Automatic annotation (TrEMBL):
Organism: Gordonia rhizosphera NBRC 16068
A matching Pfam family: GGDEF_2
Protein name in UniProt: CdaR family transcriptional regulator
Gene3D superfamilies in UniProt: PucR C-terminal helix-turn-helix domain
Domain RsbT co-antagonist protein RsbRD N-terminal per the UniProt entry, residue ranges: 65-200
Length: 439
């Protein structure tokens, strides 16, 4: 024979000792919960196994206010978390203790059914008030220990066999209420995570919005995001066919591992980023990382020092991205741009000039037109060297000369004349950046 053990109390009967609470109880795994889950346990009623034991539970229930105060005192003594909690008040803690003790004792007294909603609500409250989950579960164990102590104090003269199943029922109830509290806690955590993510996304969007009429809005958002108010800032506009929030998060993490702070927002056509470097060297390091993250065009604004310039920097980053032909992989910095920037800033006029300059060349069949334009582009890239152009395109030199003469005939402009060559180059760049004038 062994004993139920609570400091100062003992009742002799067979059983096992709970290592954490110091209470001996007979194992009855699944005694009354085996056919129900947490979701359905509110439909379950149990008893303590005898009318005498139920009467003891009812007697303890009648002393609920004092029981609550004792549990609150024990929780505050055992869990520093409750004393340090900034959000959970003593009144809220007392209410949670009262509701859970009342619900468990009501079940043990045979006066009602298991109420998972009470434990779920407790779990949600503790999660919302930032009480760690282990502290929540420990509170249930302390509550179970207190109930058993109080029942034993009232058990003088009660035959041991009438109390035999009480600990098993009690600790099954504690386990069940703990499980429900965990579910409520997890639900609140998920909701809080989603709410935090939505709030953060809204703050990030605020950073990139134009708040010229209310500049403090950007400052407030940056403070909430933990961003510096002065830094070597650049705005990034990265292209992606199928933007994913995970890519934005991964990019921020990648830069953070390099000691560089940044925030990113997912857009329908890519990503917006604000890089907060300590120096130009940080910016250069960050942009080097972006080249291996994004496989399409990435536009970068000029560096600036104060958040008030974010909106104009965003325009620069978007323009810079448009200054590279579609489909290429490159990082384009706004301050490095010249002709391309002029063309994308006045796209209508640029297309019109390109159409006039290239004229009949654009009316050729697609394949022939593309060959002619590729030859002209290669000639410019090879600094006007016919031999180098032929080598790059794997053509005979005479083929290159023939195509250049034909381009002259179709456009009325010769590559041998500097002004004509300049006009052809501008028109060619406009087509590459902005597309065919007819489109």
């Amino acid at each position: 024979m062994s004993q139920f053990f609570v400091p100062g109390h003992s009742v002799t009967m067979g059983g096992r000792k709970d290592a954490e609470t110091g209470i001996l109880c007979r194992g009855t795994k699944g005694m009354w919960r085996s056919s129900c889950s947490v979701d359905t346990m509110s439909d379950v009623s149990i008893s303590t196994g005898s009318s005498r034991a139920a009467a003891l539970a009812a007697d303890v229930l009648d002393d609920l206010p004092a029981l609550t105060e004792t549990l609150v005192e024990r929780l505050e003594a055992a869990e520093r978390t409750y004393l340090d909690a900034q959000l959970l008040t003593v009144g809220q803690l007392r209410t949670a203790c009262t509701e859970n003790l009342s619900s468990i004792l009501t079940v043990l007294a045979g006066r009602g059914r298991v109420r998972s909603d009470v434990a779920r609500a407790t779990g949600r409250l503790k999660a919302e008030q930032a009480i760690p989950l282990p502290a929540v579960l420990r509170a249930y164990r302390l509550g179970g220990q207190l109930i058993w102590e109080q029942m034993l104090r009232r058990a003088q003269g009660v035959p041991a066999d009438e109390l035999l199943d009480v600990p098993a029922h009690l600790w099954e109830a504690i386990d069940t209420y703990s499980d429900a509290a965990v579910e409520g806690y997890r639900e609140a955590e998920i909701l809080r995570t989603h709410a935090d993510a939505e709030a953060r996304a809204l703050l990030v969007r605020t950073v990139f919005d134009d708040h010229s009429d209310n500049p403090t809005a950007i400052i407030d958002a940056m403070r909430a995001l933990g961003l510096p108010e002065r830094a070597c800032f650049v705005v990034v506009c990265a292209e992606d066919a199928e933007p994913r929030p995970a890519t934005a998060t991964d990019t921020a993490t990648r830069l953070k591992n390099k000691g560089i702070t940044s925030v990113w927002d997912t857009q329908p056509d890519g990503y917006l980023g604000l890089i907060c470097g300590r120096s130009d060297a940080d910016v250069d390091l960050a942009l080097g990382e972006l080249g291996s993250v994004f496989d399409r065009r990435v536009g970068v604004s000029r560096a600036f020092a104060v958040p008030a310039e974010i909106a104009s920097a965003l325009d620069e980053a978007r323009l810079a991205r448009r200054c590279a032909p579609a489909g290429v992989t490159t990082v384009i910095r706004y301050e490095s741009l010249s002709l391309a920037l002029l063309l994308v800033r006045i796209p209508g006029a640029a297309r019109e000039v390109a159409g006039r300059t290239l004229g009949a060349l654009l009316e050729l069949p697609d394949e022939e037109r593309d060959e002619m334009m590729a030859t002209l582009e290669a000639w410019f890239e090879c600094d006007g060297s016919t031999a180098a152009t032929a080598e790059r395109l794997h053509y005979h030199r005479n083929t290159v000369l023939y195509r250049l003469r034909k381009i002259g005939d179709l456009t009325g402009r010769s590559v041998d004349k500097p002004i004509d060559a300049a006009e052809l180059y501008v028109a060619l760049r406009a087509i590459r950046l902005l597309g065919h004038p007819r489109n």
